[in-house]
Amino acid sequence: MLFQDDGNVWICGTKKKCEFIRPAVGKDKDFTIHLLLRNKEDGNAENYATLLKQAMVGSDDGGSPAKVGVLMKERSLNKESGEKSIVQAYEGKLDENVEAKKIELVDATHGLAFVMAIKDDFERDLMKKSSILSNKVMKHGFVKRLEDIIEEETKITHEAFSSEIEAIIEDPTKIKVNVPTDDVQPCYFPIIQSGGHYDLKVSAQSTSESLTHDIIVVSLGARYKLYCSNIARTFLVDPPKKVSKNYEVLLEVQEACLAAMKPGQPLKSVRNAAVTYLKENGHEELADKLPKNLGFAQGLDFRDSTLLLSSKNSVSFRKGMVFCLSIGFQNLELTESNLSNTPNNSPVRDDNW
């Protein structure tokens, strides 16, 4: 796909993909869509020539290269996509023109991400439905099953439990949610952790260790019609008083973070609000226990790495953006004195949680 600043959009694809897009041709007065049908006979030579010619329209006749925006991180994957790929050969043509100093490649990832982060009413509705689905899986799938496991003292691994929850996301009728299975899929393999060892990163994985009835952390995410959502919860089973107290503080920090998420405010204001709240309310020692990033923008991508809620991101919130706020304290220590305050001889016996 080639987008030009005068509103012309050029798309090269197979017959099936062109037919899929054809109904949009001529429907928008601000854009003119041109379809280029894939041609195996000449290896798309004519199509590539057309795209490259259009890419250089309006460039400086004095010899300065035309600036072409690309998704820089995707280029290496495109080049490895195989000889039959339309994209691989086109990337090669771009490189040839870069070497000839006819084209200068510019990373457009951040700008594209920013544009796509602002959702219209239709997209926000899909994301709400996706969020409702994740919530129902958590409430009627995970929580119900967890209650049964604890009550019946069932032995199950984190990984096996995660597999059960993934199956519910793939087929919500298991919890009496009437959603076509073709419209849903997991964003990732659900993450369930317990037993004193926890990883708050989105890349964390459920282990083959058995679930223990202490501090149980779960994260799951569903896609609905390709739009992502995410939900994470911590369940405390007979926790030490220090754990309960810190969790109450965490809920207060969450409210402070939500209050900072307003259009016009920089993304970095969220983490700054969390740190400020802790320092001003006598919990300064917990500030260093916060993750570096407290969330990210969501949409068709589960996690937009250009719109992180970090302490350095100066991009401003815009109306229509959708974020996943993900806060927590990590590597908190529990002393023997703390553990002695554990009610009912709870099995919590690890020095870190």
What does the model show?
The chain is of the alpha+beta class and 353 residues long. It folds into two domains: 2-107, Creatinase/prolidase N-terminal domain (Creatine Amidinohydrolase, Chain A, domain 1); 120-345, Alpha-Beta Complex (Creatine Amidinohydrolase). The chain is built from ten helices and 14 strands. It has a three-stranded mixed beta sheet. A three-stranded antiparallel beta sheet has the order 6-9-10. A three-stranded antiparallel beta sheet has the order 7-8-11, covered by helices on one side. A hairpin with a 2-residue loop joins strand 9 and strand 10. Helix 8 (241-260) packs across helix 9 (268-280). It is elongated and about 75 Å long. Residues 344-353 have low confidence and may be disordered.
What key attributes describe this structure?
single chain, 353 residues, alpha+beta, Creatine Amidinohydrolase, Chain A, domain 1, Creatine Amidinohydrolase, 2 domains, 3-stranded mixed β-sheet, 3-stranded antiparallel β-sheet, 10 helices, 14 strands, 37% helix, elongated, disordered C terminus
Overall 3D geometry? elongated
* Whole-number total of structural domains: 2
Helix content: 25-40%
Corresponding CATH architecture of the largest domain: Alpha-Beta Complex
CATH topological fold name of the largest domain: Creatine Amidinohydrolase
| Rg calculated over all Cα atoms | 25 Å
| Nearest-integer average pLDDT | 91
N-end to C-end Cα span = 48 Å
